[in-house]
Amino acid sequence: MKLNIFNSQGELNEQLAQYTIAIAKEAIAQKGRFDFVLTGGSSPKGLYQLLSTTYKDQIDWDKTYFFFGDERTVLPFEKDYNGLMAKESFFDNLSLKDGHVFYVDTNLSPGEAAADYKSKLDEHFQNQPIAFDLILLGMGDDAHTASIFPYTDLVHQTNATVARVWVEKLNTNRVSLTAPLINQAKHIAFITFGANKAEALKNVLSDHKDVEKYPSQLINPKDGDLQWFVDEAAASLLS
What we know:
By secondary structure, the protein is α/β, with parallel strands linked by helices.
């Protein structure tokens, strides 16, 4: 694990963009494609805009495939749908080929949507182990990541799959990659900024392990690289 601390959100986005470009070029050179998992929420918007405008010519988008680490169970045209945020801040700036974005089909029931997404992943990876080149993750101020929330069933999920999870505090279902599936990735990058994340970051990175309370502690790639991209405000409570 490597912790990268930056003075500002802008500097963080700049360095994470460069990190993403390097992984994309390496993946395309080695296997002919870049399998890239996006995170939702507001945190990655600046990065997505940077990659799709300033650095638009640095990645071969014709050889890039996009996925989502989790999805909210709202319809695809609703503002809380992670896929819509990515489309508006990222994909609309690119000329992507059909079939290069793997959305979660929330027209289905949550359980069906999870099974459908896993089936799409299996097909894309030709029924071999699913190992993404880069997974971007956010972290909530409750230390959740993807939709692996504290004290939910997903904390104890041991299968590398896509699952439906009931989140009591939000009174809703979510669809999410499980921690074992995330941990098969070659590279994982957390993007975390703001003073409201400082307490969670301190607890997640502490030597005391309590994955039920701090699910982001579950992220520990088996053979891959894990890096945190954080700003000084988020890192303010670290020793």
